[in-house]
Write a structure and sequence with these properties.
The chain is 73% helix and 6% strand. With 447 residues, the chain is mainly α.
Length: 447
């Protein structure tokens, strides 16, 4: 079976893609959804003076605001209807998953299968609306206090502006949440990840141009810019290598006799990824850090003293920010791995189908062994994610590089690209198998 799959993979070409009409429809749907998202990042928020806000954002910008603006695809700097982006949904997902691990009620729902998953998704949507409402109201209040050289960024401050801002921003976040779910169901790839991916890629030319501008003015040397490009390529290669790395555990199936024929006696392997949690930990850590610190950044000098102190200690590039960022990444690596992979459940499934790991007794011993291996892999995976995400932070902090296409962004872009290409490859393989099955049926009828 493996050799047949490899042969099919080798035969996949543009001709096979041209015949896969279902895949083409999915790709067009995904592309259309991302175009709609990009158009929405240019629709301004009602009641905002765009010229004055650009001037104000340039004063308050830098550090955490620029990073959040990159995740939002530039929607924050233009203060559009998608200014909050999909971040409230990610925050709600974090909270619900944490509660699922601690609440018996949610844990029981999770075990109910598809119906329970739908209820948990519904709770996530409700919490998304609540978080988006709170965040959009805080943003509206912050906007009313922002003034530039030409006046206030808000044309007519007051209750009506706050109400329209909350309704518009919450509606934008809910629409993006719905759009992401549609892409996941009817398109190719994970919709939420692709929305973040599109925002990051859209801001890449601006970040690259600002770096070249610093080289032109002499703020950065040409050699240092070349070093940055070489380092980015090296990090991409490192990410691809680690994301494809696996620990393969041999699984043996005993022989059994059915009538006069012998079945089984085969050996397979159980692949465990080095980075089981994928890109989720950096996204979760970034969302938890970016949203509160964005409010701190918008509050500026008008906020209370404790808010100023928090803003100083957690500024982008500070030691406290990096330590907290690394701690959150490591925590979510272990937390999310524990959610997506249950060693004892895997061991029970192996025993149910007669499989066993050589040298390990089926059941609890196998589960303990899987847990031991997975823990060691997660330690390495967490260290890898921490290094990749913090390396650009050190460069930004020490060399004032305005290149916010940092480790987290690079990781998201490479991982989402690999996942999407993998899904396209799976669709093409499925189409090839369908073609072979149809040909075999036709030959059987002729025979």
């Amino acid at each position: 079976m493996a050799s047949a799959a490899e042969q099919l993979a080798a035969n996949i070409n543009f001709g096979a893609f041209a015949k896969a009409t279902e895949l083409q429809k999915r790709l067009w749907f995904t592309l259309g959804a991302l175009v709609v998202y990009r158009l929405g990042t240019y629709i301004p928020l009602p009641g905002i003076d765009p010229a004055i806000f650009r001037d104000v954002f340039s004063q308050y910008g830098g550090g955490i605001l620029d990073m959040f603006n990159m995740f939002a695809g530039g929607a924050l700097s233009r203060m559009t209807i998608f200014a909050l982006n999909i971040m409230p949904y990610i925050s709600a997902s974090i909270i619900i998953q944490l509660l699922t691990a601690t609440s018996p009620t949610l844990e029981a729902l999770k075990k109910e299968g598809e119906s329970g998953r739908k209820k948990i998704n519904q709770y996530t949507r409700y919490l998304t609306v609540l978080l988006a409402t709170v965040q959009s109201y805080g943003l509206a209040v912050g906007l009313e206090g922002m003034t530039g050289s030409s006046g206030s960024a808000v044309i007519d401050p007051g209750f009506f502006f706050r109400f329209t801002t909350v309704v518009t921003l919450v509606g934008g976040t809910v629409f993006l949440m719905w759009l992401g779910e549609q892409v996941t169901a009817r398109g190719v790839g994970n919709g939420i990840s692709l929305i973040i991916f599109a925002g990051i890629v859209a801001e890449l030319p601006r970040a690259f141009a600002s770096t070249l501008e610093l080289g032109r003015t002499g703020a950065l040397s040409a050699l240092f810019i070349i070093f940055l490009l070489i380092m980015a390529v090296g990090v991409i290669c490192f990410i691809v290598f680690v994301e494809r790395a696996q620990r393969r555990l041999i699984v043996q199936y005993p022989k059994r006799q059915v009538g006069n024929r012998m079945f089984g006696g085969e050996s397979s392997h159980l692949p465990l990824k080095l980075n089981t949690s994928g890109v989720i930990p950096p996204i979760f850590a970034s969302s938890l850090l970016l949203l509160p610190l964005t409010i701190v950044g918008f509050a500026g000098t008008s906020g209370p003293e404790w808010l100023q102190t928090l803003s100083t200690y957690l500024a982008h590039g500070t030691v406290a920010y990096m330590v907290l960022y690394a701690a959150l990444i490591i925590f979510f690596c272990f937390f999310y791995t524990a959610i997506v992979f249950n060693p004892q459940e895997t061991a029970d499934n192996l025993r149910k189908y007669g499989g066993f790991i050589p040298g390990k007794r089926p059941g609890k011993n196998t589960g303990d062994y899987l847990d031991h291996v997975l823990t060691r892999l997660t330690v390495v995976g967490a260290a890898y994610l921490t290094v990749v995400c913090l390396l650009p932070e050190f460069l930004i902090a020490n060399y004032t590089v305005p290149f916010y296409f940092g480790g987290t962004s690079l990781l998201i872009v490479v991982t989402v690209t690999m996942d999407t290409v993998g899904q396209i490859h799976s669709h093409l393989l499925a189409h090839q198998y369908e073609g072979l099955i149809k040909k075999s049926k036709l030959r059987g009828r002729r025979g």
